[in-house]
Amino acid sequence: MEASRTGNSSETDQLLESLAAGDRQVWGDLLARHRTRLRSMVALRLDPRLQGRIDPSDVIQEAFLTAFGQ
Hints:
By secondary structure, this protein is mainly alpha-helical. It has 4 helices and no strands. The protein starts with a helix and ends with a helix.
């Protein structure tokens, strides 16, 4: 039950292992799998002064691009 609550399932573990092994194609799969939760987390933490100008999905996309470029 803990795995489903945290979103850390065996499928996610496999994706993370593939990523660690150098398979950069799994980035999109990981993002798609966790997008809703990530968006909620960003929205919750986004400074109220920025909420009208910045969409949480844009923050996630920028972080994705930064991480993917590493």
